[in-house]
Hints:
Elements: H1 2-43, H2 47-76, H3 90-102, H4 106-137
Helix pairs in contact: 1-2, 1-4, 3-4
Amino acid sequence: MAIIDVKKKEELLTAITDGIISTCESIGQISGRLMDCANFLRIEQNEKVFNDISVLMDNLSDLMDFVRELRDGLKQLEISQESLSSWNKSVDIFKEMLSAFEGKDWITLADLIEYELNPLLLEGKNGLSELNERLVEK
């Protein structure tokens, strides 16, 4: 029975490290596209910008789902989740963004994307990278 547990833990660890690498790459892409959207929001609010924002919000939702699943995996492996603490701020930022969107306050939305969300993504990416380095050392 212990051999199966060890094998499952190794498989989980591999899945986590692979997921982190893929997610870090995605965060870089999402970050760049978010900055483009923020800049376009300040200039004009057309259908393309709102479609792009909608796609990016779906990407962010998938990202947050990954972080949630990652927390569960780390818990099973009894590994500290401290590197993921920056993601805790995301809910408040998303609420502010929703409020700005509903109020059609495009400048505030653009500012939240550029000055709150984008730095959060980069901080989260750094935390994931640090975590991955620790996991690879195991």
